[in-house]
Amino acid sequence: MESSAELLISLALILLAARITSSIATALALPSVFGVLVAGVLLGPSVTGLVHLSPALEGMSSIGVVLLLFVAGIETDLVEMRRVGIAATLAAVGGVALPMAGAAGLAIWFGYGVSESVFIGTIMTATSVTVSAHVLKEAGFLQSRIGSAILGAAVIDDIIGVIVLTVVISIEGGGGMGDLVRLGLFLPGALLVGHFVTKLAAVRLVLMETREHRFLEVLALVLAFAWAAQEIGGLAAISGAYLAGVLFGRTILQEDLADFGNLIGYALFAPIFFVTTGMSADLEGLRAVPLFTAALLAVAIVTKVVGCYGGVRLGGFSHQDSLAVGTGMIARGEVALVIAVLGHQSGVIGDEVYTASIAVTLLTTLAAPLLLRVTLPKQAPSAEHDPESEHRLQLASQIEALEHS
User: Fold this and answer.
1) Cα dihedral across residues 73, 362, 135, 50: positive or negative
2) Which tens digit of pLDDT belongs to each residue from 326-356?
3) Could you give phi then psi for residue 316, rounded to 5 degrees?
4) Could you tell me if residue 122 is inside a domain?
5) Would residue 4 count as lying in a domain?
6) Residue 49 falls inside a structural domain
7) Number of compact structural domains in the chain
8) Which of 13, 109, 220, 314 has its CA 20 to 30 Å from the CA of residue 6?
9) What sign for the dihedral angle of Cα 32, 332, 156, 225?
10) pTM (2 decimals)?
């Protein structure tokens, strides 16, 4: 059992290593999150073994990813998301169908059974935008058309992925169609109840004199949303956190909550999440299936980019914006890890496939920020040709001129 002293020194090493490696990554013109992920690999068992992944760290990591998606939800522009709704849906469909078919076909070609191959394809359908959201925020694109498409597609992708997973497990005898009914009932119910709860909470909380109490209650609600999504709806907890962020982002508390989320999330819990993700890498296990792992990595990246690119391209995006959306959806992240663990525990996939899946999940998580940074447009979002934005800028200039006349 981990002692409090071990936890303290582990946290100290994680935060210090994250600070150093993120600074180095920034100096090399790389996303800071890439450096933090590398810090996890260096601290983990594959390299130095200085930090061991304990239940306490895993718990803090889970809170970290919840807070990160809550902040992403707060800063999501719903007006912009409605404008890219069709494109995001098409991107999600393409980003699920193509990776699943490609990964399953590759596994069959390598001689794995049909059930195991289909489950490998299911793992590769997952998308984690936690890393991409961090990069988008860092580059100033989170509230842009690209950021809205990526976040919107990720939410839809998560829902489709859960449906696919439920069907696959049901075929294997481990689940039932009741899970699909539960999901179908949960989504509209969560939106309706969530809208009512957040509006009611915002009206009451805005009258509070002490901001600390206000933040505590909001944090409790966010964690409750995350719990409900996982336990009641059968979705990933991050979906509930993102939904809470979107709903609170429509209230008068939006700015205060964004500052609070950035402070507590990005200062403490985000480094812990990214470092522990890097720590999960088992470089030794790759020696057993190096060729399959390399091929699966290539398929995972290419099919996700092509599938999402084609979707948003059909939705009216330009070539460069479509490429940025595609690369922003590469990372498999925590959702794929959960699916892989579930398949391994149920015996659907063996040790080799499990190791390869974990490696590809982590490598795509490492690759996503690099490729996304390269493919993002050089032009700042505020400079994009948006008639509404230009009109607001012109109006502001006219008002300013009148005030100084």
Assistant:
1) positive
2) 999 998 866 777 778 778 777 788 878 888 8
3) 100, 10
4) yes
5) no
6) no
7) 1
8) 220
9) negative
10) 0.69
